[in-house]
User: Which sequence fits this backbone?
């Protein structure tokens, strides 16, 4: 069974996120999403609309997602890959190259982002100031 992992905030879940999750799952059989906690989002400088629990519920309702775990810091990826016996680490290509160090532990794949949609664009167009 090929086990995949991906990381993110997934706030104001939109079809760009779904495109990523669908293609990540297509890389294997079991997809784990490491979801940024509220505290880690503060560290990332992201002001989330939905709480961790709300974002987790949304992700768990997606057919491509098999497990959601908390992402609490930048440094947990190697531990996660070993703990969950991950075969492939998948991220959108806005992160191209940033996680190549993980190639010592598993395959690293960067997938094209869905260009025309983003949470910040949604907030801007709905006039929600982050
Ligand atoms: N994404 C995408 N297309 C978009 C928007 C996002 O493919 N239009 C992808 C991103 O490339 C990422 C995933 O969806 O792989 C989640 O996006 P974010 O929630 O913005 O994740 P980010 O804040 O970049 O967190 O340790 C890694 C970080 O937690 C990544």
Assistant:
């Amino acid at each position: 069974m090929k086990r995949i992992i991906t990381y993110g905030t997934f706030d104001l879940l939109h079809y760009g996120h779904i495109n990523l999750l669908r293609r990540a799952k297509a890389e294997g059989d079991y997809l784990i999403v490491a979801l940024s906690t509220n505290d880690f989002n503060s560290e990332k400088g992201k002001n989330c609309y939905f709480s961790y629990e709300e974002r987790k519920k949304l992700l768990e309702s997606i057919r491509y997602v098999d497990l959601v775990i908390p992402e609490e810091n930048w440094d947990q990826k190697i531990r996660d890959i070993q703990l969950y016996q991950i075969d492939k680490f998948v991220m959108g290509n806005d992160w191209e190259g940033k996680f190549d160090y993980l190639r010592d532990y598993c395959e690293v794949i960067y997938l094209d982002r869905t260009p025309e949609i983003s949470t910040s664009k949604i907030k801007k167009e709905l006039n929600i100031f982050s």
Notes: Residues 77 and 128 are 32 Å apart (CA to CA). The radius of gyration is 14 Å.
